[in-house]
Amino acid sequence: MSGLLVVVSGPSGAGKSTVLKALIDSLPRGKFSVSMTTRAPRAGEINGQAYHFVTESQFVEMREAGGFLECARVFESAWYGTPKNHVLDDLSAGFDIILDIDVQGALQVRHSHPDAVFVFLAPPSMEELRRRLENRHTETPASLARRLETAAQEMERRGEYQYLVVNANDRAEETVDKLRAILVAEKCRTSRLECCLPMSL
Amino acid sequence: MSGLLVVVSGPSGAGKSTVLKALIDSLPRGKFSVSMTTRAPRAGEINGQAYHFVTESQFVEMREAGGFLECARVFESAWYGTPKNHVLDDLSAGFDIILDIDVQGALQVRHSHPDAVFVFLAPPSMEELRRRLENRHTETPASLARRLETAAQEMERRGEYQYLVVNANDRAEETVDKLRAILVAEKCRTSRLECCLPMSL
Asked: Is the dihedral of CA B22, B28, B34, B35 positive or negative?
């Protein structure tokens, strides 16, 4: 049976990285999709792990050849995208693939893969989101304001996802359980099973 | 938040009673719906527990008043039905209500409550179903044949349910986990949440 393509979006500060890492670790056959980007590697980033690093011309060529499930240019500088071949190969091999992408990317994936599972991970409140971002001590007032504005815009689109999971403070385990439950339930959907029912009448 | 109405069907011998009992026990707020019937109570059956026992005229009057979520006359003798008021009151009070009903009943519920969750519980194979029914040593050859024929007819309708869970031998726990996951996932569906999101933008 082919794996599930699971698209997870949510504002920066919703806690996606932590819960998705825990989710992957808890799945028998789960994998992150590794994005491709034209931005320069940061110290310690290994090619093929955090990202596949490529040049702009390599990226554009692959994009024109339809090689991405979704891609976008972020803040008018670097390109980011999900390489299609890797994902489709892994799905065929039975892996559940988690795509941690933004709302725009999710809409692109929905267009080409309506059978994917779309989950929005939300913070418990905008006030809590602000608090989490401030506590990182890595944001300037301007970048904080920009992140909050982007978050508000993303939150407005949450209704376009099939599932909404609120990641409450100190409840990361509960959040992971809900995400796991969504995967288990989706694997029981008759619309996915009809082709390969274990029953012959 | 209102509870979930969960309709579970599946052939006799699929193991419904056992796994649904375990499911209810594991839910924080779960209840079976108690059916109403015109058949006579068997030894030990208490009114209001296994069934609500009523006379045929009481049943027919309630049916004509639209008092059932679903009802049917079984083998042209006794009536069975799910009283609407009890279920709706319990749902409003936040209970998840499990309806263990047949395919015909499920279709009636889908008509009036398309937001219910529809799960088909299947045996791993028809051979295994036959074995389980034979091992009960309660079936005559004629009743066994009738149950198997009914089972085959019900199995053909499984694609009309949203979820299919196969109850494999010695895997009742896994089956219960899947049913629980379906309930958890359904409670995260944005289509159920939009009215009562915990987030104000």
From this structure: negative
